[in-house]
Amino acid sequence: MLISGLIVGTVLGFVLQRGRFCVTGAFRDLWTTRNSRWFTAFLVIVAVHSVGLFALQALGVITLEAEAFPWLATIVGGFIFGFAIILAGGCATGTYYRAGEGLVGSWFALIMYALFSAIMKTGPLSGFNTSMRGITIDASTIYGSLGISPWVLVAVLVVAVGLAVRHHLSKPKVKIATLPASKSGLAHVLFEKPWGAFGTAAIIGVIATVAWPLSAATGRNDGLGITTPSSKLVSFLVTGDPELVDWGVLLVVGILLGSFIAAKGSGEFRIRVPDATTIIKSIGGGALMGIGAALAGGCTIGNAMVQTAQFSFQGWTALGFMILGTGVAAKLTLMRKRPASTPTSSTSGVSV
Questions:
Q1: Which of 106, 130, 157, 190 satisfies CB 3.0 to 4.6 Å to 98 for a cystine?
Q2: CB 86, CB 286: distance < 8 Å
Q3: How far apart are CA 17 and CA 68, in angstroms?
Q4: Contact predicate 5/218, CB 8 Å
């Protein structure tokens, strides 16, 4: 059953690359262009995932475990991670799929992210990480603290996200010039036709839901996750211990494979070497990503998508401070470079 991790990762990597879906762009646009389209798409993932998770739990397929809330580590780690993804040019999954496209800067960011997540989780800084995450309060889930059914919050989230999606879809569409199709049928849809933000988000939400029972079948009671598997991958490469290769490790390997397949099929793969300044930022950003994600207990997937779908305090707190950290980094590194009189326009979910 471990092979299902590789399959899910490959499909996820393919969808992320073809949908150009990077959470860094979603967070960044909230600050730089005041555009919430891609952030709304991200919340579509959370909403779809939340419905799926609580449905699976109601059916007895999975069990969602509640833990104490490590509030200090979540706040500090979330902010560091949000700041770091601007420097690195992508979040955890964004860095993985862009590495699969041939972006050398993402290779550096990915290596440092995996290395420093391992340093924080099982290496020299593991004691610091453990002590920080040991500062907790008993509150675990929002619905538990309110004493209500999780389905109440699920319904509120679904309605709110649905209204936001309708708002964006009601706006006039901007026509973009495209080249004549060179493929037909399924090949055209998979490798050539642009994928919409909300459709891509819904697919990712379904993938995230399916991941839970497949992962649980291997003894790993969790869904999509990037930081711990990346840490385990580094540890495996250093020690050669096959016990470290679990469902999650095969998942992240699959993301690289899937994004490479998508990039090659769409003609978007090519080796791109950035300048020295960008490489230095990628290295520093990747290292901070690993530190921040380990402290916060997850990245934009493990925290901002999986934990939020469970309505945990950790997930929603981490999401808020990731967005804040992204805003500070954007202010310091991106927005100050723009002339005040120059209007900005929204970009896709692709990171800069």
A1: 106
A2: no
A3: 35
A4: yes
- Helices assigned H by DSSP within the chain: 3-19, 23-32, 37-58, 71-88, 92-100, 104-121, 126-133, 142-146, 150-169, 185-191, 197-216, 227-239, 247-266, 276-296, 308-309, 313-333
φ, ψ for residue 69 (rounded to 5)?
-95, 110
Cα pseudo-dihedral 95, 96, 98, 104, rounded to 10: 80
- Taking a C-beta distance cutoff of 8 angstroms, is the pair 214, 1 a contact? yes
Contact indicator for 253, 8 with CB cutoff of 8 Å:
no
Residue reference for tokens 């055209």:
188
| β-bridge partners, 137 | 69
Torsion of CA 284, 14, 50, 138, to 10 degrees: -30
Nearest CA to 68 among 129, 135, 130? 135
Q: What's the average model confidence in pLDDT over 6-31?
A: 95
The answer to which of 16-20, 93-97, 145-149, 182-186 has the lowest mean pLDDT is: 182-186
Could you report the per-residue pLDDT of 249-308, keeping only the tens digit for each? 999 999 999 999 999 999 999 999 999 999 999 999 999 999 999 999 999 999 999 999
Whether 207 and 11 have beta carbons less than 8 Å apart is answered as yes
Cβ-contact 30, 274 below 8 angstroms:
no
308 vs 301: CA distance, rounded Å: 9
**Structure token pair of residue 191:** 């490798």
Q: Where are the domains of the chain?
A: 3-169+187-337
- Sole residue written with tokens 């907790």: 136
Return the pLDDT at 348: 40
* pTM exceeds 0.85: yes
What's the CA dihedral at 136, 140, 145, 149 to 10 degrees? 180
pLDDT at 346 over 60: no
